[in-house]
Design a protein that fits this description.
The chain is an alpha/beta fold and 295 residues long. It is built from eight helices and twelve strands. The C terminus is likely disordered.
Length: 295
């Protein structure tokens, strides 16, 4: 306000509070500030505007004609400011969200429920491997990440949004396809169609370790493409090749079948993640019961 040097919004709020309350004492109580400080601010405002705004009377404070004119303007200004703030708050923020490959739609919906529970949010998804998401989140490039765990959690807040056992995917004419469930010993000699470990090192290491604990150390066949058509093509016609997927992550495809394997199958855990101490991370508070992770 170049025409009113030194006049701040708080001075006008103080002025309106005294005009409403009728006394400095009551206005100070409502504003929760000391009465001498409020009186000083009102005198300062009058000096900077260049005219008395109140008449000091035994009952308290009465507006002068100049004060009434200023009060009308302040009321209009504060009303417009409140409307503008409300309009600004109603505009959804935009959040960039990294998503690793193969996240089922229900899990995306669960994540969106958490991300938008404080209000509207424009979500811009971009594919990003789990391994990269931690660096992107810590750098502020991503607001959220949906990734496979375990990952390096330093500087991050994680909330598990899906936890499912992995099962075996084969083509529908595979020798193991007619069995309702599989054991580890039945997988002897089978190769594993497996993604490049650099996409999610922690997850890949955890799963392969669990397979070794069950006595299956398969030869891995790289699945570098990431698309379902080529995934399907790789499995079809090979009686010694299987894949590991969750039931929810297995696309409904009449050419493929999913079978549980046990005992003690490895799990795929997906987490919604944000950098610690950010606006986004508070939405993932473990103490909030509004949205629970499913297992």
């Amino acid at each position: 306000m170049d025409e009113l040097p030194g006049v701040e919004l708080r001075h006008l709020r103080y002025f309106a509070a005294v005009a409403d309350a009728g006394t400095v004492t009551e206005a100070a109580r409502r504003l929760r500030i000391a009465q001498p400080s409020l009186s000083q601010q009102i005198r300062l405002l009058e000096r900077r505007i260049g005219t008395p705004l109140f008449r000091r009377v035994p009952q308290g404070m009465e507006l002068t004609e100049a004060g009434r004119l200023l009060r009308d303007g302040v009321d209009r200004m504060l009303g417009e400011l409140r409307s503008s703030v409300a309009a600004a708050r109603a505009v959804p923020s935009t959040a960039s969200v990294g998503v690793c490959r193969g996240v089922p739609q229900p899990v995306l919906a669960r994540a969106e429920g958490l991300m938008t529970r404080d209000g509207p949010l424009r979500i811009a998804y971009e594919q990003a491997d789990s391994q990269r998401q931690g660096d992107l989140l810590r750098a502020g490039t991503l607001a959220f990440g949906i990734l496979r765990t375990p990952v390096d959690e330093s500087g991050l807040v994680l909330r598990t949004i899906n936890d499912e056992p992995l099962g075996i995917v084969t083509h529908h004419r595979h020798p193991l396809a007619d069995r309702p469930a599989l054991t580890w010993s039945e997988l002897a000699g089978q190769r594993l169609l497996w993604f490049p470990a650099e996409r999610a090192r922690g997850y890949a290491a955890a799963v392969l370790t669990r397979l070794r604990e069950h006595g299956w150390t398969p030869e891995t066949v790289p699945e570098t493409h990431g698309g379902h058509s080529l995934f399907r093509h790789a499995l079809l016609g090979h009686d010694d090749l299987v894949a590991l997927r969750t039931r929810a992550g297995s696309v409904d495809d009449p050419g493929l079948v999913w079978r549980p394997v046990g005992p003690g199958p490895p799990h795929e855990r997906l987490a919604l993640t944000a950098a610690a101490r950010t606006t986004w991370s508070r939405l993932l508070s473990a103490d909030d019961r509004a949205e629970t992770a499913r297992s």
